[in-house]
UniProtKB/TrEMBL annotation:
<protein>
    <recommendedName>
        <fullName>Copia protein</fullName>
    </recommendedName>
</protein>
Length: 120
C-alpha cells in the first residue's frame, strides 16, 4: 500500500493505493481518494495500510481511530506484516503518483503486466 500526501491541490486530501499480488502478478488493486484530510504523511500511510488490511478481511470499514488499532491488532496477531519498502520498489506508486516513463515501466513490470507491443 502507499499514499501521496495531500496530493489533491483543491481539497488537500491524499490518494491511497494498494496492489495484491499472486505469484508475482496483480490480482486486485485499488486507488481512491482518502475521505479525510490527514495532518501528516504517517497518518496518510496508516489510512492506506488500514484500507488494504480491511480488503484482506472482506472489506470491513471502521472509523479512522479504530483503523489504527485494527491494523496494530492484525500485526500483533500475525495476520498482516508491515515491512519497509524502498521508494523505487513501491509498486503502489503507480496508482497514486504521476511517474516518469522509466519508473512507470519498471513498476508495470513489477505488477506482472506488459505493454501492448510486448504481446504482439
Amino acid at each position: 500500500s502507499d499514499s501521496d500526501y495531500a496530493g489533491d491541490l483543491d481539497d488537500r486530501k491524499s490518494t491511497s493505493g494498494y496492489v495484491f499480488l499472486l505469484s508475482g502478478a496483480a490480482v486486485s488493486w485499488s486507488s481512491k481518494k482518502q475521505p479525510v484530510v490527514t495532518l501528516s504523511t504517517t497518518e496518510a500511510e496508516f489510512i492506506a495500510a488500514a484500507s488494504c488490511a480491511c480488503q484482506v478481511l472482506h472489506g470491513r470499514s471502521k472509523h479512522i481511530d479504530v483503523r489504527f488499532h485494527f491494523l496494530r491488532d492484525l500485526t500483533k496477531e500475525g495476520v498482516v506484516e508491515l515491512s519497509y519498502c524502498k521508494s523505487d520498489e513501491q509498486i503502489a506508486d503507480i496508482l497514486t503518483k504521476p511517474l516518469k516513463a522509466d519508473s512507470f515501466m519498471k513498476l508495470r513490470a513489477l505488477l506482472g503486466m506488459c505493454s501492448k507491443e510486448e504481446i504482439n
